[in-house]
Write a structure and sequence with these properties.
The complex is a heterotrimer of chains A (510), B (160) and C (321).
Chain A: H1 2-9, H2 13-31, H3 37-48, H4 53-78, H5 87-126, H6 128-136, H7 140-157, H8 162-176, E1 179-180, E2 187-188, H9 202-220, H10 237-246, H11 248-262, H12 268-283, H13 295-319, H14 325-336, H15 350-384, H16 387-406, H17 409-427, H18 432-459, H19 462-467, H20 470-496
Antiparallel strand pairs in A: 1-2
Chain B: E1 8-9, H1 14-34, H2 40-67, E2 69-70, H3 80-100, H4 102-117, H5 124-148
Parallel strand pairs in B: 1-2
Helix pairs in contact in B: 1-2, 3-4, 4-5
Chain C: H1 2-7, H2 11-22, E1 35-39, H3 46-62, E2 66-70, H4 77-82, E3 92-98, H5 100-103, E4 118-133, H6 141-150, E5 156-160, H7 165-177, E6 182-186, H8 189-197, E7 203-207, H9 208-213, E8 218-223, E9 248-255, H10 261-276, H11 278-286, E10 290-294, H12 296-316
The chains are: A mainly alpha (510), B mainly alpha (160), C alpha/beta (321).
Chain lengths: 510, 160, 321
């Protein structure tokens, strides 16, 4: 009954008010490209020192939940993922917005985020210690294979030529090696520039590769940014609920994948949403409509990335190993408040733990009304603002947002450079997603590989190290399946309508 | 894999479609070349990837040559000067920001970008309205970042 | 500024800005506003956590806030290479870590030199330690050394980074104990401890702080401090066991070159005062830190001693030529 009493404790008017404030400001901060959940939480930490531990935790959880969700706005409305875990939201969210369904996409993202968030929190509450053990069974080799699996999603994600996708991903992987190497300590590919010593910051790369091309094309024509359908206004909740009901399995599957993958520190969020996206696409009958504005795509990624909030706290709270950077900030705040991770979590520290989980639960529920309200406002302002103001505003946000990541003008210059490269490559049929995927997965793959190599040398057998574990073998099998599934599917489709003048998509997978 | 295969559709011109793999092969080559004086642990990953990129580039070239390319005639046209201007303004903004400070460069770029993105004729009323909104937006973001989020925005070395 | 004001920027905003420009840093009423504390690392690490603890007391003493910022990248190189560009009024300070600021610029150009880091106070260190899982067969350091002697290279250690405190400690340990181990670098101490807990490696080069944080799952075999840590009275020091190893990760703060001496002294005094607060001392000890006091006056001696130690060991151990 402890759980209940602490959850009720979280419901005091003051705490509810703080949760409301936290979620609302989190949504706004998350919606601005470059302003991350990490920053929102970090700024808040000193403020919480003056509060009771309960209120502090509720507020931190609320702002984090809000910020992860808010990232979907910029992904849907301006094609810019605010965090790596919102990349896949752009795939269908932005096409939906372009054709005039931005309001529906925002509503769908809200519904999916609530479902995903609740699944994640539920997992945190019920099976956290068990899942934490799973996180521990992932060693360097497993991470290496996981990154390879992530890269195989390219074949599913690249529109047009798969070879182009691989070239793009390779480019991203090469970019990821720039800077001082963690393993080996070499300074690589900085070409004498100090700016590149720290490597390419992922969020600034995201802003550059996704948002700058949109800006460049936005000024090139007088047409409005998003198509506006005068008849359809409002939040379109009924329609959204209908899509959510059709996609109920999709939602649950994605939230489960999100929670499951998020427990892996360091890899979680971005891989989780990509995996659930490609799973949703694989399971769908009309898989070719994914990437062109299929509502199920938005549902899948948003359910997954909000599930990572609860999922990411599992290793953070149980093992003291933060799953994501915002988790790390919150863990720091918890330590300062005198909280210790480990087995005391559900005994000595039970009151703090349950209050925190209760706070996350409340914050997730608050997403629904607040998200619909703020989302509607965000959508309306994006469509009603004239282009001459929209362009400088977005440009302003990209520059200040990139600068704020680590207070560095160099990052702004890197962001712009990548943006121009991204625009050129996009024009010649190289999409940004494989490049970004390479950039994100590169360090995971490289460190896993080199660490595995060192382990193999110590143990005397590389083969056993890399191919010995059941988890490794499972991921390898999944990777092979992921590469060849499109081929098999295409074959099957080809057999079905033989000699039919098929569209050029057939060559994609050949 | 016989002659039934249609020609490949280029994203842009047929020639550019052939040039792009060459570019990637070149990038792979540079990364390969630069890895010479790295330690074994540091070089193994980029070398592997560079080789994969080169192979993918060669395969793509072969694919294009064997199957032929169709130029994309429906690619979108747009105002190239405006595109270029946007890039120039944003680059200048980033380069001048540490010297002239965030507020000044922010406002200047805001106004320039507004001009670049405007297609209709300016009326005094529209201009004033836009300028005013611009100033309010810049002030809002400045307040949000500098005052609320404590981001130390560059004040400008020329004045400080 | 004139232009922006004339356009009609909210007057209050402009005024507060103008006053920020004109405030001449006078040591007497320093700090007159909040201080930016830039971490050259990401959140959640030991530097971050100790800064979070200092925050509270800083506000008690000065009435102003200590605002923690993160500037991660290149194992600290990104932050330190930008230290010289930061304002010299004392309102921007940066975390400074040993041996990082000595080892990083050795033998390669990382955008800063050790001398560029103008340290004003060093406040604590976390001693190096060898950690194993609770269920590990190695009960003592000798067990581990014996295993490493029987099969050279087969005993694996995880640790944070290459050319880092952990890397140096491992190389030094190999020499002192005359064994060969395999050191596997990870992206940070979080990843290194995950590898230990998950059974990927036999042991970890870590710190007392890691043992304090995970004390239900790991134990230490030896600590590289001069005296036993009060939290772990049963864990012997390396010196007790006959290996001359004292070291760890030291943390302090620095300001850019050109910051007035009085301001630096004032900052040094503030942080020394925090260090003397018994409540702070208790909190730090509970987290496994060892407090030290290296105020501005003693900094030069402290630094040149450390330089000698690390330069000698780095040279001797072949990390640099």
């Amino acid at each position: 009954m402890d759980i209940l009493s602490h959850a009720l404790g979280a419901l005091s008017p003051l705490n509810l008010g703080l949760a409301l404030l936290g979620v609302a400001s989190g949504i706004i901060i998350g919606a601005l490209p470059g302003l991350s959940a990490t920053m929102a939480v970090a700024v808040l930490v000193p403020v919480t020192f003056g509060m009771t531990p309960e209120s502090a935790l509720i507020m931190l959880g609320a702002i984090y939940t809000g910020a992860i969700y808010g990232g979907s706005y910029s992904a849907i409305l301006v094609n810019t993922p605010g965090t790596p875990s919102a990349i896949a939201t752009t795939f269908d969210g932005f096409p939906m917005a372009k054709r005039g369904d931005g309001d529906l996409a925002v509503t769908l993202s809200t519904l999916a985020s609530v479902v995903g968030g609740l699944v994640g929190v539920f997992a945190l509450l019920t099976v956290a210690p068990l899942l934490a053990q799973v996180a521990l069974s992932f060693g360097p080799v497993e991470y290496f294979w996981l990154a390879i699996f992530g890269l195989t999603l390219i074949s599913a994600l690249s529109e047009g030529s798969t070879l182009k996708g691989f070239m793009g991903a390779g480019f991203g992987l090469l970019l990821s090696t720039i800077g001082i190497a963690v393993v080996g300590g070499d300074i690589r590919y900085t070409f004498g520039s100090q700016v590149l010593l720290g490597g390419i910051e992922i969020v600034s790369a995201l802003i550059g590769l996704y948002c700058i091309p949109v800006l460049i094309d936005l000024v090139a024509s007088p047409e409005s940014h998003l198509k506006v359908d005068e008849k359809q206004r409002g939040i379109r909740l009924r329609e959204g609920l209908m899509h959510a009901w059709i996609g109920k399995f999709n939602l649950l599957r994605s939230a489960t994948i999100g929670t499951g993958v998020a427990i892996l520190p360091g890899a979680g969020g971005s891989i989780a949403s990509l995996v659930s996206y490609s799973e949703a696409r694989r399971a769908a009958k009309d898989s070719s409509s994914f990437g062109k504005g299929n509502p199920q795509g938005v549902l899948a990624t948003e359910a997954a990335n909000n599930a990572t909030v609860g999922g990411g706290f599992i290793p953070t709270l149980v093992l003291g190993i933060p799953g994501t950077p915002p988790d790390a900030v919150i863990l720091g705040a918890l330590l300062v408040q005198g909280f210790r991770t480990g087995p005391e979590l559900f005994t000595t520290n039970a009151n703090i733990t349950y209050t925190f989980v209760g706070g996350l639960f409340i914050a997730t529920c608050l997403l629904l009304p607040l998200g619909l309200l703020i989302g509607r406002y965000a959508f309306k302002s994006i469509i009603s603002i004239p282009k001459a103001l929209l362009v400088p505003t977005i440009a302003f946000m990209t520059v200040i947002g990139t600068y704020a990541i680590r207070n560095s003008v160099s990052d702004v210059i890197i962001m712009l450079t990548l943006g121009i490269i991204g625009w050129v490559l996009n024009r010649y049929g190289f999409k940004p997603s494989p490049i970004v995927l390479g950039l994100i997965l590169g360090p995971i793959a490289e460190q896993g590989f080199v660490q595995g190599f060192l382990m193999g040398r110590a143990s005397g057998s590389y083969a056993v190290t890399f191919f010995g574990g059941p988890i490794s073998l499972t991921i390898i099998a999944l990777s092979i399946l992921s590469v060849f599934y499109p081929v098999i599917k295409a074959r099957r489709a080809q057999r079905r309508h033989t000699n039919d003048a098929d569209d050029s998509r057939q060559e994609v997978s050949s | 894999m016989s002659k039934a295969l249609p020609k490949l559709q280029a994203s842009c011109s047929a020639r550019s479609e052939l040039l792009m793999p060459l570019l990637f092969i070149g990038i792979g080559g540079v990364f390969l070349w630069q890895s010479q004086d790295m330690s074994q642990l540091g070089a193994i990953f980029p070398v592997t990837i560079a080789i994969v990129v080169i192979i993918a580039g060669l395969l793509r070239l072969a694919q294009l040559v064997v199957r032929g390319v169709l130029s994309n005639t429906e690619r979108d046209k747009g105002s190239t000067p405006r595109r270029a201007l946007l890039v120039v303004v944003m680059t200048a903004w980033a380069l001048v920001m540490p010297w002239a400070g965030f507020l000044l460069t922010g406002l200047a770029s805001f106004v320039s970008l507004m001009m670049i993105a405007q297609y209709e004729a300016w009326t005094p009323r529209r201009l004033m309205g836009h300028l005013l909104t611009g100033v309010v937006l810049v002030a809002f973001f400045y307040a949000l970042f500098a005052l609320l989020l404590n981001v130390p925005l560059p004040l400008g070395r020329w004045w400080v | 500024m004139r232009i922006s004001l004339s356009i009609g920027l909210a007057a209050g905003l402009g005024l507060s800005l103008a006053s920020a420009f004109t405030t001449v840093a006078i040591a007497d009423d320093f700090p007159a506003k909040n201080i930016q504390y830039v971490m050259p690392f990401g959140p959640g690490g030991e530097s971050d956590i100790s800064a979070r603890l200092q925050q509270k007391y800083f506000e008690e003493i000065t009435g102003k806030q200590l605002i923690v910022q993160y500037m991660p990248g290149g194992g600290g190189a990104v932050g330190w290479s930008q230290l010289s560009d930061m304002p010299t009024d004392g309102y921007a300070i940066m975390g400074s870590n040993l041996p990082h600021i000595i080892l990083k610029p050795m033998g390669q150009d990382v955008g800063f030199q050790t001398e560029d880091i103008n340290n004003f106070f060093y406040f604590h260190y976390s001693p190096d330690a060898i950690l194993v899982r609770n269920e590990s067969p190695y009960q003592t350091l000798d067990d581990l050394i014996q295993a490493a002697q029987e099969a050279p290279g087969a005993v694996t250690f995880s640790g944070s980074g290459t050319y880092s405190a952990n890397d140096v400690a491992n190389t030094r340990f190999q020499q002192l104990a005359d064994v060969t181990t395999t050191y596997i670098p990870f992206g940070g101490s979080g990843a290194a401890v995950t590898a230990l807990l998950g059974g990927v490696v036999e042991a970890e080069w870590g710190y007392t702080t890691i043992a304090a944080n995970h004390n239900d799952k790991v134990r230490m075999l030896a600590v590289a401090s001069e005296e036993r840590h009060p939290m772990f009275p049963d864990v012997p020091t390396f010196q007790e066991l006959g290996y001359d190893m004292v070291g760890g990760a030291y943390r302090g703060m620095a300001v850019p070159e050109g910051t007035p001496q009085e301001i630096q002294q004032k900052l040094s005094d503030i942080f020394q005062q925090i260090n003397q607060n018994p409540q702070f001392q208790q909190e730090m000890q509970d987290l496994g830190f060892v407090l030290i006091d290296v105020p501005m006056g003693e900094m030069d001696t402290f630094m040149s001693d450390q330089m000698d130690v690390y330069e000698a060991s780095a040279r001797e151990l072949g990390l640099i030529d």
